[in-house]
Amino acid sequence: MHDYYYFTKEELLRAPKIPLIVMEDNQTVFQAMAKEMAEEIKRNNDRGKSTVYICPVGPVGQYPYFVERVNEERISLKNVWFINMDEYLTDDKEWIPKEHRLSFRGFMERSVYTRIRPELVMPEQQRIFPDPKNPAYIQETIQRLGGVDTCFGGIGINGHVAFNEAREDISPEAFLQLHTRVLEISKETRAVNSIGDLNGALDDMPNYCITIGMNEIFHAKKIRLGCFRDWHRSVVRHAAYGEKTAHFPVSLLQDHPDINIRLTEFVANLPK
């Protein structure tokens, strides 16, 4: 038994190894994430600096608020790079078609880029996805741009960030050195994602993905994670109080100098 899984809200907030910010509900978490995205871009624009983000497709609730702020406040994204975390692959290790209902590339196109005013949106070459044909391009691009300002994301059921799946055969130090790569998706992740995205159609879930590495994530200047699902109750407690191990990858971010997890009151409180 792991005592931390059963911590009350008060116990959870007492001494977490990753700073926790409890917010009212999902909407509040997403609005805060969108605000941070927009405000950092505005500051960098004022200084004549570029902005480089690692971005998820999951969580996605921040994007409508971000798009709204960009359009209403006329925030230029011309000097902004979005490096998406990951994408599903076919069994032949190719990107699934952009038209596929699970495609992260398709989601970003439909729900973000085409909804931003054309005069504000970044050029297509600044909308980057890891490519199974050239995985090194992510690391090369980050180095060329001078690093990542902020990595936004969530946490998976087994502690994965992006698709950096849990490992039992590797040390924490070695796991943190992993770069962008193709890998097989774990059965736990496939099951949870099939419930959320395909009404439980597990047989139709892809078996492979390409993911940005823990190395790229850890070396972002800031990391901001959002947790709001029912099973995030245990995930947050493990992230905040578990030992650093590749068995639960987000735990390896405990030593990052500027990280926090935004979670809802629902996640902070356990059922009575």
UniProtKB/TrEMBL annotation:
Alphabetical list of InterPro entries matching this protein: GlcN6P_deaminase-like, NagB/RpiA_transferase-like
Keyword Repressor: no
Keywords assigned by UniProt, alphabetized: Isomerase
GO molecular function, one term: isomerase activity
Source taxon at top rank: Bacteria
Name by which UniProt lists this protein: Glucosamine-6-phosphate isomerase
Native source organism of the sequence: Clostridium porci
Lineage, broadest ranks: Bacteria, Bacillati, Bacillota, Clostridia, Eubacteriales
